[in-house]
């Protein structure tokens, strides 16, 4: 009983987005404020990009990061947890897998980064999960709300731009309005965003999802100031050649939970991921030498992430 909605401690968790907005219409106003902000295209310098089934946390004084962000969220929901006193923030891209454990990790990371700072509250913001035909977004919303409601800390929901509030009708198709967001970790500002470049090891990180990883990967070591990928492994993919021989439309219809509203690059990214899996059938051997993570450090001259050679 620790989820706080519109300043009121809740005994019960809303079952769906419609219940939340009916009982607390103020969230419509909060969502509209976000939707009124123009979408920004964010470059790679100072960016920590978080992919699907990934999370990261940082504090305002982190010299390596200005923006944490993610995009391409259709039925997925972007979750931002922030400590109001310290400004420490965690961001995750949830598709419904591994939510319980990841929620606990997000809150723990923010609390660790907030140590020694003025007292504050844990604030929660949810963006994404449009009103899709199969209600996948509603399932993800319910999982997230239940996970936060079970947490022992009081957590304030300050934004819920999800469901109908993040949906626009184009022709006869429901479409997401916001696909991605960035968080300025220095100021706490959150804004709609797109990310043309998504940081290192993109195909490796996407391969983990494609092959069914059941956990949300924490990709940033705030103590070291380094991006950290892996280690992980997956089974070889049978029929990779068969997948690659299919049309873009076939890949879209069979590999997306929302084929009508995916960004134009969806099929291209899927092909790159499948090729990577085909070439790295045992990443524990070919990618993660001696079972070590791949670490990236911010290059002070260029601002880009560069691989730390071991």
Automatic annotation (TrEMBL):
InterPro entries per UniProt: NTAN1
GO biological process: ubiquitin-dependent protein catabolic process
Pfam families from the UniProt entry: N_Asn_amidohyd (PF14736)
Signal peptide: none
GO molecular-function terms, A-Z: protein-N-terminal asparagine amidohydrolase activity
Gene Ontology cellular-component terms listed: nucleus
Record protein name field: Protein N-terminal asparagine amidohydrolase
Species in which this protein is naturally found: Glossina pallidipes
């Amino acid at each position: 009983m620790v989820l706080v909605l519109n300043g009121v401690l809740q005994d019960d968790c809303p079952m769906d987005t419609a219940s939340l907005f009916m009982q607390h219409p103020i969230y419509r106003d909060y969502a509209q404020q976000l939707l009124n902000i123009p979408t920004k295209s964010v470059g790679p310098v100072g960016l920590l990009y978080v992919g699907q089934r990934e999370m990261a946390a940082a504090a305002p004084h982190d010299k390596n990061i200005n923006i944490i962000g993610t995009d391409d969220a259709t039925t997925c929901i972007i979750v931002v947890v922030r400590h109001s006193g310290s400004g420490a923030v965690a961001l995750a891209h949830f598709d419904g897998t591994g939510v319980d454990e990841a929620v606990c990790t997000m809150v723990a990371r923010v609390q660790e980064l907030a140590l020694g700072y003025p007292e504050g509250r844990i604030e929660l913001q949810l963006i994404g999960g449009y009103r899709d035909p199969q209600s996948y977004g509603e399932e993800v919303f319910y999982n997230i709300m239940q996970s936060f409601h079970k947490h022992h800390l009081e957590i304030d929901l300050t934004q819920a731009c999800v469901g109908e509030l993040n949906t626009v009708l184009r022709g006869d198709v429901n479409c997401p309005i916001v696909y991605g967001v960035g968080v300025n970790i220095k100021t706490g500002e959150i804004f709609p965003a797109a990310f043309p470049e998504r940081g290192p090891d993109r195909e490796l990180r996407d391969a983990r999802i494609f092959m069914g990883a059941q956990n949300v990967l924490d990709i940033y070591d705030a103590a070291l100031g380094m991006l950290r990928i892996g280690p992980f492994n997956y089974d070889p993919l049978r029929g990779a050649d068969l997948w690659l021989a299919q049309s873009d439309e076939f890949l879209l219809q069979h590999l997306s939970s929302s084929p009508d509203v995916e960004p134009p690059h969806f099929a291209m990214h899927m092909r790159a991921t499948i090729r990577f899996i085909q070439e790295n059938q045992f990443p524990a051997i070919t990618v993660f030498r001696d079972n070590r993570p791949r670490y990236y450090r911010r290059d002070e001259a260029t601002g880009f992430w560069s691989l730390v050679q071991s």
